[in-house]
Specification:
Blueprint (H helix, E strand, L loop, with lengths): L1 H8 L6 H8 L4 E7 L2 E4 L2 E16 L5 E20 L2 E20 L3 H9 L5 H7 L3 E18 L2 E10 L21 E10 L6
Antiparallel strand pairs: 1-3, 2-3, 3-4, 4-5, 5-6, 6-7, 7-8
Length: 199
């Protein structure tokens, strides 16, 4: 919304209360990833590394911080085959995730001590105070696509199921704070018609 952008265009507040009011309810997202891949015929493998952090300040009366932080490393290898107009494939993945999610009070003694000591410089430092843990697990994906071209027409229909039944991340802890990796189902369809200079 434009009012949220206006808050960012304003001069940065110089007091703690004013700064909190300026940022309250405004989600902050930081993310980066890299995934080099190799494809050999119908087989492919990727190694990936990714980091993502979402932070939102909540509740003007009793300030809270909602944080979702994860650092992922792992690999995924997959195989695909084709029969007529139908293609299908599957992939096996290994995921090692370090992170935490939760809502904590800004008046939390551990948080105040960390801020006061000057040791909290990164989103990962926030996550550590929330009880950052490391989890590891195996998962798999499935996909199928129908593609047919007739004359100047093309039809494609695709379905993918990512992290079938959810990829379980084992931490060895009684209660895990590592962000979960839920199952996601994606469906898409496209129709293309070639009219010479127009598609």
């Amino acid at each position: 919304p434009s009012e949220d952008m206006d808050r960012l265009n304003e001069e940065v507040a110089t007091t703690t209360t004013a700064l909190y009011n300026q940022l309250s309810g405004f989600p902050i997202h930081i993310g980066a990833s890299i995934a080099p891949s190799i494809k050999l015929g119908r087989f492919g493998i990727s190694v990936y590394s990714a980091a993502q952090t979402n932070i939102t300040l909540l509740n003007n009366t009793h300030p809270m911080i909602d944080i979702y932080h994860k650092e992922d490393n792992g690999f995924i290898m997959g195989y695909a085959a084709k029969s007529g107009h139908l293609s299908f494939g599957f992939a096996l993945k290994y995921l090692k995730r370090r992170g935490a999610e939760g809502v904590r009070s800004l008046f939390d003694p551990d948080l105040i001590e960390a801020i006061g000591s000057g040791t909290m410089d990164t989103p990962g430092d926030f996550a550590a105070i929330l009880g950052e843990q490391e989890g590891k697990g195996w998962g798999f994906d499935l996909g199928v696509e129908y593609f047919k071209k007739t004359g100047s027409s093309e039809v494609a229909v695709g379905l993918s199921i990512m992290d079938v039944n959810g990829t379980k991340l084992y931490t060895g802890a009684v209660e895990s704070t590592v962000p979960k990796q839920p199952m996601a189902v994606n469906f898409g369809m496209s129709i293309k018609q070639d009219y010479g200079i127009f598609d």
